[in-house]
Amino acid sequence: TALSFPPAGPRDSQGLNVVGISTGLPLAGNDGTGSGVLATEYRIGQAEYRLASQNIVSSSAVREVSFRSWDRDGNLEVTRTTHVHVDAAPPAVSGLFPAGGEIFMAGRDSFTVAWLLEDDLDHAPTAQARLIHASTSIAVGRGDLIDAAALPEGDWVLEVVARDWVFNSTTTYGLPFRIA
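RE: above sequence
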């Protein structure tokens, strides 16, 4: 069995491979010309073994991972151990603008869409955002200048969906603002 991390996969500041709780470990069993791999499993620390296809159950931290496979003839390989950095935390979204409570007058006002995005390990998390009003949704980017006259009157909210390099994600909503 081998851990098969992509060469350009995410690494922390210490050079350890970063894995997410929803991505699992990239374990690949190979029995060469034998009877074939029956199953591959891993465990974090001294926890119970889990099938390699199952998601990681852990909080964010550097973890010791033990892994092994057995073949269709019942031969269990020697257990191997390595360390990985488990990332269980999604990016944090803050500083939304419009933040809520503002009233923008059509024909007079405009505003710039803004938010802050931070992640504990990923230095470049991504985000998609939209302005939502009733059944209307408009994709926006950070820094977009919006003319209030271009939006229907009523209450709107800013939604930001952020994701890091191991697919941890979060959705954050601003408070309602008004186009009048």
